[in-house]
Design brief:
Blueprint: E1 2-3, H1 13-23, H2 27-30, H3 38-43, H4 47-54, E2 59-65, E3 72-81, E4 86-93, H5 100-117, E5 121-126, H6 129-137, E6 141-152, E7 155-165, H7 166-171, H8 174-181
Parallel strand pairs: 4-5
Antiparallel strand pairs: 1-2, 2-3, 3-4, 5-7, 6-7
Helix pairs in contact: 5-8
Length: 183
């Protein structure tokens, strides 16, 4: 896992990540709040939208790669707020890397945010239960589900909110748990 910084990675890395998301039909899951306007909907989640979203200086983007092959496995990104008091967590991993690999990436990403960036709390919110459960597998606590909070493709869905504090993370011994569960 490496923090993304322009000029230090291959020039087409944002395009490569976006292309992988598109191949897995995941752009609509990442950018789930689509506009109702049919013209705006055509560009929602396109390459330009993707680049604009991830070049926000408040975001910390971590690129997750397979150590053995160097293949892109996914990304974790955080919106840092309130003078580093909190960050909003997000992650997308390619399906073939779900499971232990995703848990390991989550632990490393949280360690980076608590250690290098210095945030005190990490919050996650998602309409996808799979995402909330993924975070819970590496230490996040389920806080609340907000009923019918978001409308996706005309269907109301609950928003699942999870939380991890620096204190809870440091006390959790997540590194040891990673090596115990590896197959």
């Amino acid at each position: 896992m490496t923090p993304f910084a322009r000029g230090y990675f291959r020039r087409d890395l944002p395009f490569a990540i976006w292309s992988l998301m598109e191949k897995e039909n995941a752009s609509n899951l990442v950018f789930y709040e689509a506009p109702n306007d049919p013209i705006a909907l055509k560009s929602h989640g396109d390459l330009s939208h993707f680049i604009t979203y991830f070049t926000d200086p408040q975001k910390v983007l971590l690129v997750v790669t397979d150590r053995g092959t160097g293949e892109i496995a996914g990304i974790c990104w955080f919106q840092v707020e309130a003078n580093n008091a909190r960050a909003l967590a997000n992650w997308w991993m390619r399906r073939r890397f779900w499971g232990h690999f995703t848990r390991e990436a989550g632990v490393l990403a949280c360690d980076y945010m608590f250690g290098a960036v210095g945030v005190e709390h990490i919050w996650g919110y998602s309409p996808w239960q799979t995402s909330a459960k993924s975070g819970m597998s590496f230490g996040f606590e389920y806080v609340v589900g907000l009923p019918d909070y978001v409308c996706i493709d005309g269907e109301f869905r609950d928003m699942h909110i999870v939380h991890l504090s620096r204190e809870r993370f440091r006390a959790g011994r997540y590194y040891e748990n990673l090596f115990e569960t590896r197959h």
